[in-house]
Design goal:
mainly alpha, 5 helices, 81% helix, elongated
Length: 98
């Protein structure tokens, strides 16, 4: 029972990182779309299939770049460590700035 309670508490603490993870993903997707819009005229000659490939590749790059920071946030095992990790990610990715 104690082991399960410990697991539950770790899971519960990790929930504090969810808003930061969501903001990180939103910011990354916003930047990806912004960059795609910048080159949209240059990509206009591509076929629909090629545009889908470009979308898939850019989304894959974003996912790989975010994997480390998101994993770091999810793997914290103590409340203080979780809060510190959240603050670090928020600062590193300027998530508090609009």
């Amino acid at each position: 029972l104690r082991e399960e309670l410990g697991k539950f508490r770790l899971w519960q603490q990790s929930l504090g990182a969810i808003p930061t993870i969501a903001r990180l993903q939103e910011k990354a997707e916003s930047l990806r779309l912004e960059e795609m819009n910048k080159v949209s005229k240059k990509l206009s000659s591509l076929s629909e299939k090629d545009l889908e490939v470009v979308e898939k590749v850019t989304k894959g790059i974003v996912a790989k770049l975010l994997h480390g920071p998101m994993n770091h946030l999810r793997q914290q095992t103590e409340g203080d460590a979780t809060r510190a990790a959240i603050k670090q990610v928020q600062q590193a990715f300027q998530l508090d700035q609009k």
